[in-house]
User: What shape does this take?
Amino acid sequence: MVGKAHRKTDATAKVTGATRFADDLFLPRMLYAKLLRSPHPHARIVRIDPSRALALAGVKAVLTGKDLPIPFGILPVSQDEHALALDKARFVGDPVAGVAAVSEEIATAALDLIVVEYEPLRPVRDALDAVAHPDPRIHAYGDGGNLHKLINLEFGDVEEAFTAADLVREDLLFFDGNTHLPMEQHAAAADWSADGKLTLWSSTQTPHYVHRALAQVLELAPARIRVIATPNGGAFGGKSDPFSHELVVAKLAMVTGRPVKITLTREEVFYCHRGRHPTLMWVKTGVKRDGSITGMHFKSLLDGGGYGSYGVASTYYTGALQTVTYPVPRYKFQGARAFTSKPPCGPKRGHGTPQPRFALEVHLDKIAEQLGIDPAELRLKHLVPPNSLTANWLRIGTMGLGACIEKVVTGSGWKEKFRKLPDGKGIGLACSSYITGAGLPIYWNPMPHSGVQLKCDRGGGVTVFCGSTEIGQGSDSILAVIVAEVLGLDPFDIAIVTGDTDLTPVDLGSYSSRVTLMTGHAAIQAAERARDVIARHAAQKLGIPPERAAFADARVFDVERPERGLTFGEAVQLAEAVRGAGVGPSPAYSYSACVAEVDVDAATGIVRVPKIWIAHDVGRCINAATVMGQIEGSVYMGLGEALMEEMAYRGNRNVVHKIPSLLEYKSPTTLEMCDVVTYVVEDPDPNGPFGAKECGQGPLLPVPPAVANAVYDAVGVRIDEVPITPEKVFKALRRKAKGEEPRYGPDRFPDILWPEPIRVPPPWEGGDGTATDGGGRARTGKVVAVARETVRGS
Amino acid sequence: MLRLPSFTYLQPGTLQEALAMKADAGPQGMYVAGGTDLYPNMKRRHQEPRIVISLMGIPELRRLEGWTVGTCITLTELSNLPTFQRSYSVVAHAADLVSTPLLRNMGTLGGNLCLDTRCNYYDQTYEWRKAIDFCMKKDGHICWVAPSSPRCWAVSSSDVAPVMVAIGAEYRLVGPSPAAERVVPAARFYHNDGINYLTKQPDEILAAVRLPPPDGWDAVYHKLRRRGSFDFPVLGVAAWVKWEQGAGSREQRRVTEARIVLGGVASWPQEMPEAGAALAGTALEDAAIAAAAEAAYRPAKPLDNTDFDLSWRKQMTRVYVTRALEELRRRR
Assistant: This one.
């Protein structure tokens, strides 16, 4: 079962249109909700008068900030959102009022009748603007002015490491923001029963966190709330926060006593955002002549938008994984996240790591060139060893990067092509690593991250109950395949019930590439316990010791005399239902290597990518078809980020989003998608279920830097900024023609007043993972947690 | 979701019926053909007709007679017509480059020729436009692209219109009697004004397009856009030349007359007369092409209201005009 290519259990329903998404729900007497959004990027709300809207025939309720005054936020440290802006609007599109009416048309018309008086405040256009203008503050909390979070971590003395290096290189790079662009817009429907129980259906990746936010903001007992995660038509991290519209429809249902539904417009999805943080990065690395790194200093400045969201975790992530691909014996990371007057950024596929990975892999390409070493060789010669600790105390398990590099180098004909292709054609290589499941939950608790219950039916069927959420990635199928494997059944004999807080045990959600690992372990445990119970009863019936009971082809039989046995259903009748259990975290790191080939039109700067070779160390495939799908999907998304996707705002025009539509927010079509050659590298990791590691996010990471490095190989210009648009390539080519630096990219990293660093010696310098007081300044005690916090969140 | 406002939908069977319905509806009425331009605009409250009169059920508008094409022929049909692929390959090619296959199955020739001008301050929802206090093309007073300008700078974004202007097509318009019917050269159908971009009266119907007979001319269309599908042109180059007949070998043939028309850079398909003049009498030698490209590049004035950076778009004029003329030279 495991490792083969299986049809997804939900595929037929998706293809035939039978799947019921949140917007497909129609409940008797249902009302429709609309949100009034701020037309100001930063403004105090002086007065709201909903009376004219309430007077419109067909309008049943209007809510404003004061109706839902309790703040919320996905992270305990960033409880800075309100369902509806209470005193202040923080970006164009920030929800200010909610209307329920008998039709969507009437609800829309009512929005125009709500009078809101604003007192505009100076908006903050971007992160540099936030550093330069601490006042007026967007939020009253944070690390000073308009800086939300400052991080300063030091794992060994990097300055000393630089003096020991043969070459020290600094680079400045920028990765622009982009968004998830799920096909399905967010939608939610709520029902408030006469018994005082709330049900919310929502296209969410994280029903458990939505459940908690509803309880907190609506002041209801969690037992009175049921959240049902409807199938997601794509999510990619964009449906991981509790959202305004979910809280508002719930409250509207409570106020009106009628079911209420909202379906966001595409434009509103751009305002929900929580996508990639625009990130300015500065990196300084010391290397020996052979390419080995002596030390690295990395700085990142993230443009966070108007709210915290997952931003603190995102900021840590921009500094966390630099050390897990090539040995970095000493490492210093400084990260800052700014509040700006734009939709909030958060977790998008690869959460906080594609940006530093772009910076690092382009930086390494330049270092390789300066040292005269082939960039593939440079990386192969310096791989992090398996089963080791990094300078920042991350524990590496299996490590298949070497095999990945060899696959793509051989497959792409790298050695015959690198620096040898005709002008305008180029090839570039980049690598990456990603986490498999966050080590810590988003809120601190000692409970399992995932629970799975099995119901084995007398008729021979098995139902799996799990709080996980199918977002198109195939998580329901994974549960089916795993349980089928253990119990010797066909995956289609297994019914899957997921994402329903009334029916399913808690799973923290579909984020952080955690589902296969966490739910997979839980499913294995539950299935094995069920198998043991059934085996015991079947063995008794067959008159054999339980160890001789085997499970295959929907039968339980004597392994020594296979013809003697029972059907699975008969065995269940003997044993009846059993309960399974959850499991704790056990992260592992996946690895990817990518080679991109490009055609650059030097007259226009237009870059086309005909082909990408990608190898991914997935530990072990559970469903080979969905692994390939996830890798190719990651390449597609990475290609869009590399070449065109960009959250563009008009800083001089009220900081409006320039292009909040599917037409003008440019994402590749099938015509832009390249051919992909995928290599799946399997090296089972003892921490993964059946040895599996993640594959849904990591393969995105090396794509942008591989394209950038290939552009340099093609036309000799460095584009140190993503997306690599024709304009940027064209400008760099003109600079090259004029004999100027053949580069396009940022030119400065602003001065930021960093807090005193937390100094943690790396493992090989006598550290134990705690901070030394190095100079009497650092905190002690919680530093393992600090280091671990880098892998917290999504 | 973004909803269409409610409206009355009428389906006339003849031109006369359509004209009468429009006369009854007055300013509240609008014609629609494929709807791929109008309906999204109605969702964003750009046009707010209460009565929409469909032209798709009028057989006359779906007819093809010799070199005269009914305007309700879909773009897919236009690009697949065998005669078009041979003699009017430039028309078929331009039609084939519009948007996506699905939208070409609905969108019509007439719709593309009358396409509303586009601007990324205008092609936004009502709520978005409210956040910038609207613009003069709809509900506001200012042009955000050029705030001191008295006019609207929305961009002509049709792929087929520049071709029609370049090849010298004529449009047949039918209006309410007694004026009834008139024929205008394609170039005179358009105004360089983002709001009043057509010389057509609201109650007139663009009924047919008369193509010039294929008598020794050739034309090509090159389109610049971000992606190979979906996108409107940020630059279109329609290049038309009339080759000298008879004398000499094909390779020696000279251009007697030429027209270069740019799409996506002004509120109308912008003819570049100096570029055309630079080609007359030449054999499209490199120097002649370079001179024409330069002449087209200098006056091209893209503004910051479409995809891509405007200075790069201006630079691309030279490249795309050059490439279009090189293609014509190859086809000689």
User: Anything to note?
Assistant: Residues 577-586, 774-794 of chain A have pLDDT under 50 and may be disordered.
